[in-house]
Amino acid sequence: KSLFLAYEDPYRRELETMFDVQEVPTVVVLRPDCSVLISNAVEEITHLGPDCYQNWHEAAELIDRNFLTKEDFEDKSMRSFSDPIRRLKYKVEDEKKKKKKKNRGWGGGGDEGEQVEAGAGNKDGVGSPW
């Protein structure tokens, strides 16, 4: 997206101070988060021509993909880059896996919510329930 400002525009002075404009013409290229990507791109435009727009577009897309707001981090637990390797090496289990593993053991055989009485089917209650 390109925005141009007429020289006579009163907003010009405010933008001059905001982007520290030293000479005219000046082209300021902004990132998606509105920070300055290039403070004066006139020389780059003169040198590369329309190809410079593609470079800026690619840079903006890359930054936009990697740009996360503060809210994006609130629900996620922060882990290191080596966390997956550490989990494999030390076989770290998360809570869901622990619960599944616990239910697979003796007495957990899929009868969730039902109590299996010890010695059911055996008159004196002694011996194997099988």
Tell me roughly what share of residues is in helical segments: 40-55%
> In terms of per-residue confidence, which ranges show pLDDT below 50 for 5 or more consecutive residues?
none
Structural shape: rod-shaped
The largest beta-sheet arranges its strands as: 1-2
Q: Topology as H/E string?
A: HEEHHHHH
Question: What does the radius of gyration come to?
Answer: 32 Å
Question: Terminal Cα separation, in Å?
Answer: 74 Å
Structural class: mainly alpha
Largest sheet: 2 strands, antiparallel
Number of helices: 6
Mean pLDDT across the residues is 68
The strand count comes to: 2
Q: What amount of the residues lies in strands?
A: under 5%
Task: Considering the chains and any ligands shown, give keywords for the structure.
130 residues; mainly alpha; two-stranded antiparallel ribbon; 6 helices
TL;DR?
This is Nucleoredoxin-like 1. This protein is mainly alpha-helical and 130 residues long.
Can you walk me through this structure?
By secondary structure, this protein is mainly alpha-helical. The chain has a domain of 61 residues. It contains six helices and two strands. Strands 1-2 form a two-stranded antiparallel ribbon.
Write the layout of secondary structure elements.
Blueprint: H1 12-19, E1 29-30, E2 36-38, H2 42-48, H3 51-66, H4 70-74, H5 83-90, H6 95-104
Antiparallel strand pairs: 1-2
Protein name: Nucleoredoxin-like 1
GO cellular component, one term: mitochondrion
InterPro entries: RdCVF
